[in-house]
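sry for the spam today, last one i promise. C-alpha cells for design, 318 residues
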C-alpha cells in the first residue's frame, strides 16, 4: 500500500507488532502512514539513473551535517533499491562508523587509494545493515595524506582516476546492471587536497547548510573553489543540490535562513525537504547505524527519505 491509502485487514495483521494498541485513533492513523512510508522505503521508488551519479558532499564548515547527510541519503537511496557506494574522505571516519564498517588503522582505506594508488575495488566493503550499500572506509592515516600528496604527480585527480577505473562506475554498456547508481563522497571540513580530489572527481556537488545564524558565511569561498575546480580540473562539476539541515520549524531564525539560502541558488537546487533537528539522527551513529535503520519512522528518517527521493527524481536525466 502507499502512504495515504486505507490499510486492508491483511496490512493490519501484518503490522500488528508494529502498532501501539493503546494509541488514540488519530495517533493510529499517523502510525499507519509512517509504516506505509517505511514499506515504500524498501521498494524501488525511483528509476535507476542511466549512469552512475557521483556526488560530492562538501562544505568547509565543520558540524553542518555533511556526514549525517551522506550516510542517511546513501541509506535512503539503498532502501529505494539503488546501488550506492559511500566513499569516506574524512580522516575522522565518521561515515565509516555510522555505516558499521571497520576503520581502524591498517584496514584498506581511501588512504591506500589516494597515496598508494590501490584500486578502489580492493577497498570497498559491504555495509552490514543495507543490502545495496557499500563503503570505502577512512582511517586516521588519511590525516597525513594532505601532506604526503603534495609531492605526488597529478595530486588533485587521484580520486577521480580511482572512481573512473572502478568497473561498476559508468552506464549499462560500460558497467552493466551491477553498476553503482550513486557514489557519495563525504568530505572533511576544509578546502584542502582531500576536498579538491573529491571535487575533481564528482559530477554533482551537494552542500549541506545548517539552518543557523552564520549559515551563509564561507559559502562565497566554497563556491569560488568550485569555480576554480571547474576551470582547471573538472568542467563537468555542477552544484545541483543544497540541503538545509538541523532545521527548527518553530523558530523564525530557521525560516529566515532557509529564505536567504533559497534566494542565493537557482530554484530547483535547494531541496524542498529540510532536515529537522532530531535526537534520533544524532543517536544513530553510536549504534553504528544510520537513522534510516535505527528508527525508520522518526521525523529525521522520513525527511532524509524525502530528500533522497527528490534527489533521485530530479536529476536522473543527467
Ligand atoms: P559534518 O560532517 O559536517 O562535520 P555531522 O554530520 O558530523 O557534520 O554533524 C555534526 C553533529 O550534528 C553530529 O553530532 C551529528 O550527529 C549532529 N546532527 C547532524 N544532523 C542532525 C540532525 N538533523 N539532528 C540532530 N543532530 C544532528
Ligand atoms: Mg563529517
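last one done:
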Amino acid at each position: 500500500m502507499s502512504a495515504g491509502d486505507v490499510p486492508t485487514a491483511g496490512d493490519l495483521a501484518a503490522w500488528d507488532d508494529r502498532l501501539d494498541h493503546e494509541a488514540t485513533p488519530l495517533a493510529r492513523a499517523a502510525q499507519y502512514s509512517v509504516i506505509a512510508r517505511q514499506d515504500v522505503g524498501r521498494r524501488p521508488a525511483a528509476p535507476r539513473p542511466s549512469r552512475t551519479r557521483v556526488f560530492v558532499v562538501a562544505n568547509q564548515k565543520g558540524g553542518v551535517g555533511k556526514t549525517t547527510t551522506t550516510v542517511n541519503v546513501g541509506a535512503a537511496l539503498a532502501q529505494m533499491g539503488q546501488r550506492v557506494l559511500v566513499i569516506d574522505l574524512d580522516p575522522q571516519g565518521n561515515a565509516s562508523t555510522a555505516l558499521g564498517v571497520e576503520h581502524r588503522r591498517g584496514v584498506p582505506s581511501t588512504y591506500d587509494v589516494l597515496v598508494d594508488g590501490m584500486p578502489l575495488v580492493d577497498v570497498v566493503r559491504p555495509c552490514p545493515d543495507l543490502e545495496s550499500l557499500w563503503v570505502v572506509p577512512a582511517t586516521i592515516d588519511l590525516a597525513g595524506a594532505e601532506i604526503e600528496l603534495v609531492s605526488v604527480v597529478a595530486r588533485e585527480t587521484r580520486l577521480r582516476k580511482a572512481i573512473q577505473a572502478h568497473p561498476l562506475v559508468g552506464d549499462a554498456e560500460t558497467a552493466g546492471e551491477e553498476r553503482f547508481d550513486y557514489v557519495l563522497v563525504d568530505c572533511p571540513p576544509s578546502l584542502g587536497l582531500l576536498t579538491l580530489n573529491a571535487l575533481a572527481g564528482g559530477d554533482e556537488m551537494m552542500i549541506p547548510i545548517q539552518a543557523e545564524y552564520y549559515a551563509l558565511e564561507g559559502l562565497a569561498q566554497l563556491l569560488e573553489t568550485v569555480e576554480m575546480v571547474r576551470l582547471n580540473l573538472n568542467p563537468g562539476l555542477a552544484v545541483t543540490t543544497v540541503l538545509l539541515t538541523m532545521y527548527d520549524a518553530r523558530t523564525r531564525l530557521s525560516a529566515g535562513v532557509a529564505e536567504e539560502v533559497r534566494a542565493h541558488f537557482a530554484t530547483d537546487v535547494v531541496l524542498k525537504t529540510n532536515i529537522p533537528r532530531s535526537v534520533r539522527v544524532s543517536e544513530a551513529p553510536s549504534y553504528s547505524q544510520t537513522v534510516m535503520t535505527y528508527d525508520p519512522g522518526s521525523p529525521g528518517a522520513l525527511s532524509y527519505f524525502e530528500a533522497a527521493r527528490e534527489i533521485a527524481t530530479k536529476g536522473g536525466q543527467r
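Residues 62-68, 94, 189, 245-246, 275, 277-278, 281-282, 300 surround adenosine-5'-diphosphate (ligand 1) (CB under 6 Å). ok im logging off now
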